Amino acid sequence: MIKKVVLAGLCAVILAGCNTVKGLGKDIESGGKAIERSSGK
């Protein structure tokens, strides 16, 4: 029983970490696009 609870918690942490990294990548990408637009003028 305890192993199942620990496994469920571990899965939740891993999924949250993946979403955080994915969001960070999108933020960096949008920042790069903004720099490209401003330097192209």
UniProtKB/TrEMBL annotation:
Record flagged with keyword tRNA processing: no
The entry's keywords: Cell membrane, Lipoprotein, Membrane, Palmitate, Signal
GO CC aspect terms: membrane
Any single GO BP term: response to toxic substance
Sequence similarity: Belongs to the EcnA/EcnB lipoprotein family.
The protein's name in its UniProt record: Entericidin A membrane lipoprotein, antidote entericidin B
Taxonomic source organism: Candidatus Sulfobium mesophilum
Lineage: Bacteria, Pseudomonadati, Nitrospirota, Nitrospiria, Nitrospirales
Gene: ecnA
